[in-house]
Amino acid sequence: MESAAAGHDAADDVHRRTDLIRRDDYGLLFIPAKLGTCELKNRIVRSATNGHLSDEKGQVTPLWADTLIELAENEVGLVITGHFCVDKMQRADAGQPVLDETTDESLLRRACDGVHRYGGKLFFQLSHSGIKGVESVNGAPPKPPRGFHSGRARPSG
Predict the structure, then answer these.
(1) Does residue 5 sit within a domain?
(2) In the chain, which end has fewer C-beta atoms inside a 10 angstrom radius, N or C?
């Protein structure tokens, strides 16, 4: 309440605090880096997460693309997507997007171009749920990799 009485609001307080943060206070954080042959504008990385931003069929959405772009716009140098399933019948959960021939390429391009526009890089995390697939999501039982054995029961011979 004191802020309102002084003629400014909470947003003013946030901006004032943000202005006090100087890039040089963070040493190496804003210095470019290389990851293999990939040059990053800084060392800020958004690690792979599952934002549950796909639709019920595992298709990416405009919100998914816009979220990645917003991260880059806010100085994230490397954005790593949440885990994309490479087999639509083996998703780990209902929110997991699928990367296959049915994926909307225009939304993939929108995300890539948008992240690049702000100088960021975009990496995709690819995965397969294996024995952790969810039958209620996939409509089929989990499918482990060929030759995989969980250790619970070993094949004879």
Answers:
(1) no
(2) C
